[in-house]
Amino acid sequence: GAYLLNGRPALALRTLQRFVDRWGNDPRAGEVRATIAEVGEGLDEMLAEQGLAGAADGRLLAEQHEEVQALLNEGQFARSRQVAEQLLQRRPDFKPALNNMSLAFFGEGNFDQAITTAQRVLSLDPDNYHALGNLIRFYVLAGHHADALASAERLKALQSSAPDLWLKKAEALSYLGDDAGVLDALHGAQQSGKDTDPRSQALLSHLAAVAAYRLGKEKEARGHWQRAFRAMPGCEPARANVEDLAQPVGKRHAPWPFAMPNWLTDKAVAELVRRLQPVARPGGDEAVTGEVRRYLEKHPELVALVPVLFDRGDPAARKFALRLCLLAETPELQRALADFALSQRGPDELRLQAVEAAVRAGLLPSGAQRLFLDGQWRETLAFGFELHGEPIQRHSPAVEPLARQALDAIQSGDGERGERLLRKALQLEPDAVALRNNLAMAYQAQGRMHEAEAEIRAIHADHPDYLFGRVNMSQFYVREGRLDKAQEMLYPLLERRRLHFTEFSSLCMGQINLLLARGQREGASAWLGLWEQGCPDHPGLAEWHRRVRRPTWLHKLAGIR
Question: Angle, to 10 degrees, between the axis of helix 400-411 and the axis of helix 415-428?
């Protein structure tokens, strides 16, 4: 029964015959014999289509052919190829076996042999659409884009009365990203009037839905998915896409035609994991990058495949592509990251990660970027900051507890105790700029604003590049209405690539403060969003949200909203 349901009549016939041979007196034997006759008649018709009518070994060849297909579906590629080779010893030019052997070679990661075997079929039968469709897939995944395009034109021009031609066209063109061609394949199937099995109908409708959605035809796409469910209620790729599209627009991956195993062989992924396991440890970033680059030297096809995965991969494939780019840091993959960052594909979170990496690599400028967020093109900020929690300035063992206790005291409102502790610490480390900055905070906590300001100005004079000093100076200039001077304090900080979480928060507050003073509430909101993304638990966010949301009396007098 299972063999018949899965389209394996020769294996079904063999199993049924064995049942009758062993249990010929079973009450069900008569029914089984009738099934054997019916299946045998259909199998003979299939053999005739393959040019094997009347062949003494025809049914044996059919059994081997179906065994090859079953092994392919189970991922047993080496065994599948071995059985195909046995079959080809009997019939060297049996095209279905050659097509399946090309798929087995591909599953083993042997792209060259897969391509050569598909080309061999086409040398025997130039109109063999199975071989041509397979060849397009192999070319795409091997990075031979021009060859894939040329083969696609041949496939699109092919005509046949075979009902599965249209699905093969849609599958191959989906790998290539030819959305219009996929919809043409659907229309061709509809016009042919040929019936196909429910699974083929469902998959063709799903691929058409993906193509339509990618072309901006959402209503049409959803109609195709509904037809896929009517043909095959459990159609997995259609279900996965429809469920993904139920999420908020900024979190969606859909649409995608195929799951990750269709794009990447298990062998290739397993090899990368195996290579990284010995070097994947804290502080081993350089070793990981080196290992990934060596892996890509062995698998150059993946470099060409990454943009394809960004464009039309499923969630797992797209995340794999992103991680590969971030780990490898090669020029080609960094360019792919930049292109992905500025595209409309995939969820906002992944594209924002790509933006940050592209800015750090110098492929995108720091500052305002036009990005596709929440389903719309928006102006947002991108600086490529790498945030960390390592100490900004390390103190001696004698000073470290004093500095920590002082900061705790200041944050709890006890500025006087904080000042006492900091003065003790400064006697031991008089040049520690972080201690001096915290001393200014202790003055502020006690309401001694003039002393705090004097200390901040002195810190900036002694350490003009100190981030907290520059941010504090910008706030003084904003208070004085010298907004250009405030900008001069902050602008160089935007070029920094690595910031402590506290430095990042201070910079964000300085930028928001300046932008509000200029009446640029939208820009202030963008910086607030950037801050919230980097430090979502910062206790000051709520207050700054209120400031950004509510115009002050000064803004109202100036007519700013």
Answer: 160
